[in-house]
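Re: duplicated header lines in exported structure tokens

Our pipeline writes sequence and tokens for each protein into one text file. With two proteins the header for the second block appears twice in some exports. Here is an export where it did not happen, for reference. First protein block:
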Amino acid sequence: MIKNKQAIFFLDSAVDSIKSEREKKSNFKKKLAIIKKNQLSASSTLFSKGRRMKLFFTEDSKLYITPREYNLIKNGFKLNREIKKWDSLSARIVKNYVIDRPNQESFLFKQFLKRCDRISESLNEKTGSLAACFSPPKLWNASIVGAILLGMFSMSMIYRYLGQEVSAEGVYNNSASGKKVIYSDLPEPQVLGEEETKEDSEEIIENLEKLEKKELEKKVKKMVKGYPIEKMIPYIMEKDKTVVAFLIGIAKKESNWGKRVPVLNGQDCYNYWGYRGQRRLMGSGGHTCFNSRKDAVDAVAKRISWLINDRNLDTPSKMVVWKCGSSCAATGGQAAARKWISDVSIYFEKLNK
């Protein structure tokens, strides 16, 4: 019986060993499949510590626990080891890694508390010493002076930006009627600087006109230098710019600026424009004689100004009536009229730009 039992025991042991071998082979196949599944491509090679390996594993393979992960687990941290949850980087993401409150035994924490205590003590010492320098009466006086300065500054800003009416005009609401009532004895509001602005504008315009007049006078003097009309420039420059341009242009065409003029008893009539207005003194060719250069300029300029303003004859082509009168046929025809316009335009355009 004993022998049979030993034989049975031996057979059971053999069966168990066979099963264990089969399990080992199965486990080996599973591990081999895992290795084949996780191994790198043939083109990847690892060089480490003088060795060359074509088959290796990384931390993301989850086939082992790295020393860093072991230390984290030992300190009570939870590791998220789910494969390929965030592009195979989940092993590097540690839950509860950030600690809200540092350890009371931490050296850095103690140093931080000491530094805060020192800062608070120094602030208390400085504020206490500053308050000790000023007595209560001094502080009171300083507050009054500050209030006065603030009030002066506020009033100046109100006058400067909001106008006089804001600070001077009293307004209150009548609760019964719901209307605003303004005190009638207060002056009407005015905008500060309004009068100065108007005066400045007028002064600027006047200065520009004077400057333009001087430039025009320089041109006229340069143009008529050496001609008899040069002595009339002071009277001519008293007139409007357009009138001045016509006086110079017409005088050049009619008398060559005073070199061909009508005379009376051998005396110059000062008529350089071919003017034929009826007067007591009449010169050669039925032209008017004037008493003086000023008289001549004033009379002719008055006529030209009337033609410009009342008849709108403000260009040489329109002003040709000065030559033709009612009809150009009696004064040389259209050819002579065109020549007159052309000659007068040369000087008119130079002076009336």
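Second protein block, exported in the same file:
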Amino acid sequence: MASRYVVSALVLAVVAAGVGYWVAKDDVASVAQAESAAALAPAAGAPESADNPKVARVGDDVILKSDVDALYTMIKQRTPQGMPESDQVFWMLTEQMIGGRLLLQQARAEKMDQDPAVQSALRLASEQVLQEAYIRKAIAGLDSDAALKPLYEKFLTSVKTEKEVKARHILVKDEAKAKDLLAQIKAGADFAKLAKEHSEDPGSKDTGGDLGFFGREMMVPEFASVAFSLKKGELAPEPVKTQFGYHLIQVEDMKDRTPPSYEEMKGQLQQQAQQEKLNEVINGLRAKAKIERFEAAGVPPLPKLPLQEQLEKVADGAPPADPAQ
């Protein structure tokens, strides 16, 4: 299984903000920070060799195959949808890097790299790259079945068995009409036929009032209360009033709700595993670090978060709080 890191939106916002490549159809678009990172790639790239030939030269700067491959990998890690194969976009990415080198060379010629604001931005970008590299290391392997299946089993044990009901209904605005139709059904009239002729619910009228299987939370309380009190094959003895009008309800079947499969939940479980690991790493580092916060003019006072208060108590020798409380 190819390694693919799905970092939560919160983590990306903090760690990889501003680094944005994406692929739409056959077009690769970029923003300035990521393009600058690609332009700087030679500083840490592999040396030129038979397996790593140069693919372009921009002035005195050489672009190697490994530089383009590294850019492709960076884009792939940040792309929520599928990426084309590298050979399909290789020369497009090479042109992307050429453009980045031209901009970089011109910026240096104008001594923009000596601007304090630019130096600060470069420092932040470098820190973000290191943070993201550490995150990838910390969450490595958390996309495997060995890591995710125990989480799925834990999820299954926590799921409450809930019922689903399959029912038909007829919706009308007038109570007298609802009672008349109910009397016809009790006398032997076909429920589905009357629904097609009289129901004012456009979503189910043409199917004879068939609502399919639904959970209690999917219906308004008045409707759900009656539907889930009936047995298979039963007809509600009276019209049920809701904000939509008057309903005649007939339950056709009921079953236990099936929890989502492992494959259906795999992406969610992966995000959960990665976020839990990241929280564990950060909290461990936080507990060992000396962190000071300072009041500053014009800055609102910092509220203490529950985790912060708990860590401070532990640092002072108090026992950790019971997580069940």
